[in-house]
Design a protein that fits this description.
This protein is α/β, with parallel strands linked by helices. It contains 9 helices and 7 strands; from the N terminus they run αβαβαββαβαββαααα. α4 packs parallel to α5 and α8 runs antiparallel to α9. The mean pLDDT is 96.
């Protein structure tokens, strides 16, 4: 039986170019790379994880789908040792934005115009956007999705060496997401960030701290609704 992905992982898979060799970092059960190869999207894949338990799960998934010739597995910390795989696309889904940025920073080989990054952070997506923009990566597109009532943004980026800047609102929401006013998840994404920022403002004010910057950002976010 072919792998069926949830909407969150399908949004990440949508950015993979046909024929790409894909590395999936933190693969867990290897559902994503197996799906991509089974669907004829990826030509081959490397599934990595830092822990033996998830990697064993990945090996079982690959074997049960008869794909050991096209999907390899490796015990690895981030992208360590993956330089020689010849990846066209690197996918990192299901980690915090700060950790994803650290993994990218430790892998100089991704600073290659021919390597696409598909990144889906669980937290601190603004931190990841800032890292990409300041380190020569062009955010080509983004996709919003929902899973178990949680909202996720998936970033698609490629290296071109140019340093870019986003406004604070664009860092939080994503430039591509802001301009898609008809997207069904755009408002929910904005409202989530507004609620989080309102909580920060309340906390600061109750502690007698200055919250002018947060109030300005809050106003800018509400103006996008």
């Amino acid at each position: 039986m072919n792998i069926k992905l949830d909407d969150r992982l399908l949004s990440a898979a949508s950015f993979v170019r046909p024929g790409d060799a894909v590395i999936d970092v933190g693969t867990d059960h290897a559902y994503l790379p197996v799906y991509l190869v089974e669907a004829g999207i990826a030509s081959r894949a490397l599934a990595t994880d830092i822990n033996e338990g998830p990697l064993n799960n990945a090996k079982e998934t690959v074997a049960s789908h008869g794909l050991t010739d096209k999907v390899s597995t490796a015990l690895a910390n981030g992208l360590a040792g993956a330089e020689d795989f010849g990846a066209d696309t690197v996918m990192i889904c299901g980690m915090g934005g700060e950790l994803i940025a650290d993994i990218l920073e430790a892998a100089p080989f991704i600073k290659n115009p021919h390597v696409r990054l598909i990144l889906q952070p669980m937290t601190f997506v603004d931190h990841l956007r800032r890292y990409l923009l300041q380190n020569g990566f062009h955010i080509l597109d983004e996709a919003l999705s929902t899973d178990n009532k949680k909202l996720y943004a998936c970033l698609c980026a490629e290296y071109d060496g140019a340093v870019r800047e986003y406004s604070d609102v664009e860092l939080l929401i994503g430039r591509h997401n802001l301009v898609r006013r008809e997207h069904p998840l755009r408002t929910a994404f904005l409202e989530r960030e507004i609620r989080k920022l309102e909580g920060i403002v309340r906390g600061k004010e109750s502690g007698g701290l200055e919250a002018a910057a947060e109030k300005k950002l809050l106003s800018d976010l509400k103006a996008q609704l």
